[in-house]
Amino acid sequence: xxxQLKVIQEKVQLKERISTDEALFLYENAPLGLLGSLANQIxxxxxxxxVYYNRNIHIEPTNICLYRCKFCSFSKDCNDPLSWNYxxxxxxxxxxxxxxxxxxxxxxxxxxxxxxxxIWFTELISKIKExxxxxxxxxxxxxELDYLAKISKISLDDCLQKLKNAGLGSLAGGGAxxxxxxxxxxxxxxxxxxxxxxxxxxxxxxxxxxxxxxMLYGHIESYNHRVExxxxxxxLQDRTHGFNAFIPLKFRKQNNFLSHxxxxxxxxxxxxYAVARIFLDNISHIKAYWPMIGKETARFALHFGADDLDGTxxxxxxxxxxxxxxxQAPVMSPSEISEIITSEGFIPVERDSLYNPx
Length: 358
Fold this sequence. Notes:
- The chain is α/β, with parallel strands linked by helices and 358 residues long.
- 44% of the residues lie in helices and 14% in strands.
- It has a single domain, classed as TIM Barrel (Alpha-Beta Barrel).
- The protein is built from 14 helices and nine strands.
- Strands 1, 2, 3, 4, 5, 6, 7, 8 and 9 form a nine-stranded parallel sheet that branches.
- Helix 2 packs antiparallel against helix 11 (266-279) and helix 4 (88-97) packs parallel to helix 5 (118-131).
- The N and C termini lie far apart (45 Å).
- The relative contact order is 0.16.
């Protein structure tokens, strides 16, 4: 085992790519301290002491969804008293209320609503850009885009181009879950095969639309499934160079069909961040999404390869609060984010959505 660890350490020193077998070995055998050391070495090579954040809000137009993924605490049917369905006017009022916060990004994802086509969303994006012309609109999961194209009876290319022309800046990256077909069929069979997610993101990248990449971890998957998932992302990034960041998304168990499962520990969270940073050598940023893992875990993740804390949020997301996140009122000011970063020995850098410093 020591020889194998030494080989991997030497590869990291030489900036060489580790294999899938070596990533699995790290998950199963490497001491946490060593993982942190290797991950931070790579993080420092890529970004120095910088840790990034932005001024953003989330808009979730509806939680009414055609699908019922087992891990999801968000989706509701239209008769549920906890459901909502915002109009364009409702959303623009939310946007206007945050102009004073100098937001630079609006993140839009939500349920797959059965009656909204690409025209509804192009009009929405256009209205947002009229309200705050300089704001970056980051929106849509792959399954949302697949449904939008189908209900609009146009190709995926045409759908993405129309959204881009209206002002779409990048894709949010959610919905990847775990790519393994058996796990996927158990968790979210309606979302189809992993190829759908990968093909949609490759198409977007080829149209000049960047995206994030995600992985839902800590449920019924194994380490091997995680490695296979990240390998698919790494291979796609080799072809397109279109991923801005990788976001590990922790399974939270409240109010969903997998509530009987225990949530994984902080140690396992940090192990996952570190292996992701070591393995995904061609994705520049690893995001510790604090509304999902909590501020304190995000603070620790900065020492295990994460270099981005997402943003201010302003209590505009309910996806993880409904699932039991520690952050039931997810909002942080830029000064609070900066304090967390500096207190851990790093340099806070406010960024735009494409990681250009502001």
